[in-house]
Amino acid sequence: MKKRVSLLPLAVVSLDTNAALPLHRQLYEELRGAILSGRLKAGTRLPATREFARELGLSRNTVMCAYEQLFAEGYVEGVVGSGTFVARALPEEMLEARTITPRVENQISRRSPLSKRGRKLAAILPDIGERVFGNPMPFRCATPDFTSFPFEIWARLLARHSRYPSPDLLGYVYPAGYPRLREAIAAYLRSSRAVKCEAEQVIIVPGSQVALDIAIQMLLDPGDTALIEDPGFFGVRGVFARAGVRLVPAPVDEEGLSVSAVRKTRDGARMVYITPSHQFPLGVTMSLARRLELLEWARQTKAWIIEDDCDGEYRYSGRPIPSLQGLDCDQRVIYTGTFSKVLFPSLRIGYLVAPPDLVDAFVGGRVMTDLVSSTIPQAALADFIEEGHFARHLRRMRKLYAERQAYFVTAAKAELSGLLEIEESEAGMHLIGWLPRGVDDRAVARAAWRHNLITLPLSAFCLKPVARGALVLGYTAFNEREIRYSARRLKTVISEFKGQ
Most buried pick, 12, 191, 414, 420, via CB within 10 A? Predict the structure, then answer.
């Protein structure tokens, strides 16, 4: 019988040294999954245990344990004098039972009688399932490095307010947020983001989308028109859709939102949503000329601007870009931000800065939305900021993320040359990888998910068709080893599509 002696593509293996599952079991699961999914074909030769252990940075015993388990279950077979190979006689029913079942289009609408609004909202979310919202997998974007967060300090601050909490931390006392946190945020925004605000203007919310929802509910009516960046975050589209607001896409170029396109809009837009400091997902920074032009448009039309400063803290050259709100002389800008990306997402603390004459109405809208957020974490966060831990953590993360971006770009150029165009960025937590022309980014993303990679397609963020497909790739949550192996796995995925 003719032997296939092609070596195992090491990119199919991704191990987590911090996971509870032992490394030999992780390696077994990775290889078993690759065999069952067909990524490792029958007859493929596995590396020798000593060679594989050296490449993975593991002990030889760890690799041997994984191989022995695969051999015992019939996934691999040994050939004397030749090595270990993927079994040539895997049961057909075993392969069929464990292959990934593609998602059926319109599955939700066939199984349940959704309303028109429900169908509209369900259609906004990309075809990604729950995996994008689970534990971080390469290259999930907008995810901080949890292992670098000072949890010992955070636990001490939480304990300080949890052991003997004062009554005001336990009741319905602060619908606009814990006063000391509002003061700390206002001071931080004035000094680092050039936001013009006092503590009374800061309203604590669970996140930026809730801030946007409050602004929409208080300032727009169903049927009103709003402008959004195209491409832009699909979650924002969902907030507007829930409110019955008509959306008009505005293109983004190298200077940010095209204000000339905004001026040509004949729909009487009453609001525009933008991410000027670091546009999501393209990563461009809105130029000063565009900012001033947009503010003048808002003044003339009496429109509102929602400025989402989604990850403006992470700028790797020079100081963070000052806010658009700081340039506003007519109080047309509502500024929003969140601690999800600079601390950790489950904290669920964000904020909006309302113009002075809208504060009372916005606090009322906050009460109608969620009444009050958990106060003890707010008190701990106020201490975290006031005692200097927040500023130190940001400095460390800027340095770490800048290093990881540089390594990611180097690894991508080494592994993905000719398959994906990636360039460095001065800011942010992700990069855009441009695919060869004619390659469907949604198809590539679906294939990548089968390799345990989260690569969101650029087209999922667009209202209008994209001229060229691309992938949104996060790097901040992953160390150099994870980035290197994941780049190899992505190479395997994209290679299947090149030339189609």
Answer: 420
